[in-house]
Design brief:
The protein has 222 residues and is an alpha+beta fold. The chain has a domain at 84-220: OmpA-like domain (60s Ribosomal Protein L30, Chain: A, 2-Layer Sandwich), CATH 3.30.1330.60. The chain has 6 helices and 5 strands. It has helices spanning 2-51, 55-80, 114-117, 127-143, 170-187, 209-212, and strands at residues 98-102, 107-113, 149-154, 195-201, 214-220. Helix 5 links the parallel strand 3 (149-154) and strand 4 (195-201). Helix 2 (55-80) packs antiparallel against helix 4 (127-143).
C-alpha cells in the first residue's frame, strides 16, 4: 500500500512538473511573439520617420515651386509683350494669351484664342498672328529646349455651315488649325520631332464661344 501511494505521488509530481514546464513554454512562446511584434512595430516606425520630409527638404521644395511660379510669371509677361509685326486682338491688348501650369500633369499650357490666329472658318494663320507664334516659339526654345510639346486644336459647338465645303465637321477644322500652328512653330525653329498634333473639335467648350475657339500649346516639362 505504501509503495502504491509512493508511486502515485511520484506520478502526480511528474505530471505537475510537466504541466508547469508546458505553462512556462507557452509563456515563453507568447513573450517571444510579443517581442517580434514590438520589433516589427519599431521597424515600421523607423521606416515612416525616414520617409517623412525633413525641414530642409520642405524648404527646397518650396524654393522649386517659387522658381516655377517666377518662370510662369516671366513667360506670361513675355506673351503679353507685343513684338514687331504683331497685331493685338480686336478685344484689345494681348491678355487673351494666357499661360497656365498643371503641376500634377507636369505641363505648361499657352492658350491662344482662335480669333487671334485665324479668320472665321479658316485654318490659314493671319499674317499678324505669325509674329505671335514666333514669340511663343522663342520663349519655348529659351525655357524648354528639347521638351516635347503638343498643339491642341479646339472649336466652339456651332456646326460647320458657311465653310462646310472645306471641313467635314468641327473636329476636321480643329485638326487643320492645330497642324497650321505646328507648321508655324517648326518654321520658327522648334524641331518637328518635338511637336505632336491633337484635335478635340467642340468636345471641350469654355465659358463662351470665343474662349472655346482656341489653340493650346502644351509643353511637357517633366
Amino acid at each position: 500500500m505504501t509503495r502504491a501511494w509512493t508511486a502515485l505521488l511520484i506520478i502526480s509530481a511528474a505530471a505537475f512538473n510537466l504541466g508547469c514546464q508546458n505553462k512556462v513554454l507557452d509563456e515563453n512562446k507568447q513573450l517571444r511573439n510579443q517581442n517580434l511584434e514590438l520589433q516589427d512595430s519599431l521597424k515600421q516606425k523607423d521606416t515612416d520617420l525616414a520617409g517623412r520630409p525633413q525641414a530642409s527638404d520642405l524648404a527646397a521644395l518650396q524654393g522649386q515651386l517659387a522658381d516655377k511660379d517666377k518662370q510662369l510669371a516671366d513667360m506670361q509677361a513675355q506673351m503679353n509683350k507685343p513684338v514687331a509685326g504683331e497685331i493685338a486682338p480686336a478685344e484689345g491688348g494681348f491678355a487673351g494669351i494666357t499661360v497656365t501650369r498643371d503641376t500634377k500633369a507636369g505641363t505648361i499650357t499657352v492658350n491662344v484664342p482662335g480669333d487671334v490666329l485665324f479668320a472665321s472658318g479658316d485654318s490659314a494663320i493671319k499674317p499678324g498672328a505669325k509674329a505671335t507664334l514666333g514669340k511663343i516659339a522663342s520663349v519655348i526654345k529659351k525655357q524648354f529646349a528639347s521638351k516635347k510639346l503638343f498643339v491642341d486644336g479646339f472649336t466652339d459647338t456651332d456646326p460647320i455651315t458657311r465653310t462646310k465645303d472645306k471641313w467635314k465637321d468641327n473636329l476636321d477644322l480643329s485638326a487643320a488649325r492645330a497642324r497650321s500652328v505646328a507648321a508655324a512653330l517648326t518654321e520658327d525653329g522648334i524641331a518637328k520631332s518635338q511637336i505632336g498634333v491633337r484635335a478635340f473639335g467642340d468636345t471641350a467648350p469654355r465659358g463662351s464661344k470665343a474662349q472655346s475657339r482656341r489653340v493650346e500649346i502644351v509643353v511637357v516639362t517633366k
